[in-house]
Amino acid sequence: GGGAYGAAKAGGAFDLVRFVQQPQVVARIVSAVFALIVFACLVGDGYTSLPEDPKLFCVFNGNEDACRYGIGIGVLAFLACIFFFMVDVYFPQISNTTDRKYLVLADLGFSGLWTFLWFVGFCFLTNQWSWTQPGLVYIGADSARAAITFSFFSIFSW
């Protein structure tokens, strides 16, 4: 085969078309887009206020932890996607099999952890949204549903 973790192919020329067609690169791009959508929905419309009270509160049943959790895992997932995308770009240039092994294991471990965290986030946001009173949320309802939906999709993309 290709040696340990593809080490026999190390040092080859970079081919952008071939790189983008790799399944892990496509999954990483999709995961980054999903994380960006969750983060943007919660930052943009995740907090609202009542006409009589200008104080902002989270649209997920007023639970600040729900908004913070969604924003936190969204931002960290997006940054991790960028990091691992850069690792994917430079991976063919790494000839040391030990370094390759640690990078592959780090990617695998992080992906497993983030799959679990997206599942927890989906369950948490869905639970809090089910307890939200419809009369309290006017503008952020669609963004809240989008955050829930894309956190569910993120479970599978990671």
From TrEMBL:
Span of domain MARVEL: 19-158
Keywords: Membrane, Transmembrane, Transmembrane helix
InterPro entries tied to this protein: Marvel, Synaptogyrin
Keyword Nucleotide-binding: no
Pfam families named among the record's database cross-references: MARVEL (PF01284)
Membrane topology (UniProt): Multi-pass membrane protein
Keyword RNA-binding: no
CC terms in the record's Gene Ontology section: neuromuscular junction; synaptic vesicle membrane
Cited PANTHER family: SYNAPTOGYRIN, SYNAPTOGYRIN-2 LIKE PROTEIN-RELATED
The protein's name: SNG2 protein
Organism per entry: Sylvia atricapilla (blackcap)
